[in-house]
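Hi team, as promised in this morning's meeting, here are the two structures we talked about. I've kept the exact order from the run log so nobody has to guess. The first one is mostly here for context; it's the second one we should focus on when we meet again. Sequence first, then the predicted structure tokens.
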Amino acid sequence: MEAGIVGLPNVGKSTLFNALTMSKAAQSANYPFCTIEPNEGVVSVPDERLARITHYIVPKKIVPAALRLVDIAGIVKGASEGQGLGNKFLTHIREVDAILQVVRCFEDPDVIHVAGKVDPVADMETIELELMLADIQLLENTLSKAERTAKSGDKDAKQRVEVIRKCMTHLNAQQPLRTLSMDEAERDAVKEYGLLTAKPILYVANVDEADLDGKGPLVQQVRAEAAKAGASVVPVCAKLEAEIAELDPADRADMLAGAGLSEPALSLLARASYRSLGLQSYFTAGETEVRAWTVPVGATAPQAAGVIHTDFEKGFIRAEIYSLDDLETYKTEKDIRAAGKLRVEGKAYVMQDGDICHFLFNTAK
């Protein structure tokens, strides 16, 4: 799964990306379009349950869940019409699964704001409008082809035409597609287009060191605006997080404590991004490794097994599952089994966040 980091130029996107991915690359220059191609990185999703599991099952290796991030260059007003390097960047956004929009919530006369003043709500509206205009443009270009195909009697094309028109009506009312109610068939009909405003969005309020909790007026404006779309907001001081990320692990705790933080804000952001994508984790645990595996919320046991290897899904027989609470109560898998707490689940079982699993499968199937 991929999340794209977007925002206006000079809001701290690349600083945040470098901190998230532990990059020691030089910070970008103070001018628009400093990131010409999207940079990609993988960030671990911190999960305290891994430490709790490994207290009882001690492995040779611990593997957390991971999220792929794409740092996409700054979008400006008119991007949907090709302003700046607009359409090129909008294409990059179509390829990701969710959007992390960095919104500037700090004042700094040495960092130029592309609009000349710090106004987070205006920034959010600018990005949303450009994404909506890009979606309208794409759907307009697609509609005529879909209509021609529908005239031949193709049922799928007829449905696609109906969904495209439904989406365009919603967009023309200046509403992003993530707020449009669509059933699974409708979503599948337009899935291939990578519609920008249909993607889940998480707002990252880039604050200064005086407002690490995000209680200042600028962040409150972001929260109010995000609430209209049912989106979450995570306050992060990208500058501070970048400094923390540059330190050796042994020194990070001291700097966090000095800033009054119990953990890097990036940990909160990684977890919030994970949730925004509609993801959850299950675990496998043994002496070789304890690993968090990523599955969509609602995934079945065979689908979860398929994340490990496609053959596991094809040859799925059953899953043996227990909870972390069971492990902490009974201490070992052997005692969990003896207590009758090891559940046997079949193909219809819907995975729950935090399940600890063994999968039984037959590769001959």
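And here is the second protein, the one for discussion:
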Amino acid sequence: MCGVVGIAGKSPVNQMLFDALTMLQHRGQDAAGIVTCHQGRLFLRKDNGMVRDVFHTRHMRALLGNYGIGHVRYPTAGSSSSAEAQPFYVNSPYGITLAHNGNLTNAIEIHDDLFKTDLRHMNTDSDSEVLLNVFAHELQKIGTLNPTPEDIFHTVSRVHERCKGAYGVVAMITGHGLVGFRDPNGIRPLIYGSRETEQGTEYIIASESVAITALGFKIERDIAPGEAIFIDSEGQLFSKQCAVNPEYRPCIFEYVYFARPDATIDGISVYKARLKMGEKLAYKILKEWGEEHDIDVVIPIPDTSRTSALELANILGVKFREGFMKNRYIGRTFIMPGQQQRKKSVRQKLNPVELEFKDKNVLLVDDSIVRGTTCNEIIQMARDSGAKKVFFASAAPMVKYPNVYGIDMPAKSELIASERSVEEIREIIGADRLIFQDLEDLKNAVSTSKVPDLREFDCSVFDGVYVAGGINQQYLTDLEQKRNDTAKKNADGYIDVNIDAASVDLTGIREA
């Protein structure tokens, strides 16, 4: 999962891009990058690390221009090398930079076609670089000095034809404008906004609405599945549906875990959806455990589950308490490779408030259970703090299948629920009782009548149905070999040789 932003401004956009990426930091903590355009030249700064660590004053001063795009990244497979930090750049045609959130499921096949047929070279294993080269090649085939909006939209339609999977994309065509487009199923989110200035209208495209409102822009709408928008160098906006038979099937896990609670995605309030998840789960507890559920206190596992846990406690009529204090300087354990590193970080990240556990029957609520490693550690922390009984509730259903659309759900063999029953999982994590959300209840919690076209979601991690198609057992087997913890350790073990584009300016890009 990543976060993208693009701004077509009437004044320098460097600070706005920095602020937007800070608002999207929860979507990726591995790397960050910004590229801007000024008088036909590109200025780039990207590296591994958090936004605040990648960009210093000297970098910000060097990011000149009124147009730019930005990216925050975490890797879904393979290496976390700085060479794969985005945005990516290709020289021909025009000079194109691109930032991508999602995952192409046919990237390997396209990579071969690009090399053997399209005669294009790629420098990394990133599917984002594959997507960039497809876009660039299809645009170059048009062969015009000044591409029109229709040329851009034709190019996006060809991307849809060639690329399978999930993608929310922002791209900048040097001297010509800013492009944003979304996969034909709308799996990954993309939204745009505008604001009026004395110089004219400015536009912003981003992964989440929070990056738009925090900068004082007005939300216009979500970009529809398969749609593209183009803001030219004069600041005029054009839009067109570029896919054949697009369908609204956004990733339901955005609402469970990834998106900020104050975000609105595809017209659905993430906060309200999580309240409803807690409501549905509470009624399931009452149905299965009865009115005499024996719960003294409900405690969320910070931060994502807090909203669901609060509503759950209200309906059960029991106390809601903050039993874990979070160290906000430790990264998300969900993103970290290696079981030992995840275990260590849980103890560093969460510290129990013992008086909320001592001599009580505690219901811990989490957004989901993936590997189960952190659940086991947290339950043990609750027992060490004096809890009599520790119950555990997941606001999401059982995660049984890997994600192929840009979320780092690990290899199937590493998913605790892949081949186990609820009782078997309960024993492994050490809970006295365990309950999961039902999938239909989750869908109902997220659904809204305000978006009539949105009838289905990508629920592949729960039901194994991959909405973009083309996924077979061989694909999943190959994916497992790339995503398991051993593969990630090996991939990160190589020596990465970087050439500083500030001192070797061969492409026309300058390193900020």
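Starting points for discussion:
Residues 3-247 form a domain with the Glutamine Phosphoribosylpyrophosphate, subunit 1, domain 1 fold (CATH 3.60.20.10).
The chain has two domains: 3-247, 271-326+345-449.
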